[in-house]
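Thread: Newbie trying to understand structure tokens

Hi all, I'm a second-year student working on a class project, and my supervisor (Dr. K.) asked me to get a predicted structure for one chain before our next meeting. I've only ever worked with sequences, so writing a 3D structure as a token string is new to me. If someone could post the tokens and maybe explain what I'm looking at, I'd be very grateful. Here's the chain:
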Amino acid sequence: MYSGPVAASGYDRLATDGTPEAFIILGPNHSGLGSGISIMAEGRWQTPLGESLIESSIANLICEHSSIIDVDDDAHAFEHSIEVQLPFLQYVYRPEIRFVPICMMMQDLRTSVEVGEAIAKAAEGKDVVIIASSDMTHYEPQKSAEKKDRTAIDSILKLDEKELQNVVESKNMSMCGYGPVSSAISCAKILGASKANLLNYRTSGDITGDYDAVVGYASIAISK
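---
Reply by user tm_fold:
Sure, no problem. This is what the structure looks like when written as tokens:
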């Protein structure tokens, strides 16, 4: 109920752009299980709206183009960052969408860029959408969270993954998925992206009315 309205802004924008061949969804690893960069290359995920199949051909291509991405189901067993995106996609399109889940425990710049490059090579000539899942600042007062989040958002809007990583480190940000976002930016630029637009920004305080310790959420669209 906190992040949902913000995520919905992104999926509302996405719905106007037709139905892609597949979705590549990157998310952080909160559980600590599995490999540093873990992809699932086959199988299906079930939500209350139905089952969605993993796009094996694209998943295998991504693995071929990277030496650091492992096929590893364990990292996905208890991770929520990717699965919470599926109901939005299933509702906007259909349960039978195809997707590729990539869970990132390693989120440094070099790793993030390599993951982005591998996705770009695998996606070349295909109609795919890349989605990066992340919260922004966690459990800080509203003003502090907004200030930090706006700085990080500015770097994303500039399509500057290096600056984003520097902001997260220098400001000691608790943004959980800065690696997935960095990978998405890197990949998008290779595939021809030239702009990014902020669609929505809110905090949990906007829902609860408690602004003493909030979590920030942003929805940003990157496009050609």
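A couple of things are worth pointing out once you decode it. The mean pLDDT is 97. Residues 129 and 179 are 17 Å apart (CA to CA). Feel free to ask follow-ups in this thread.
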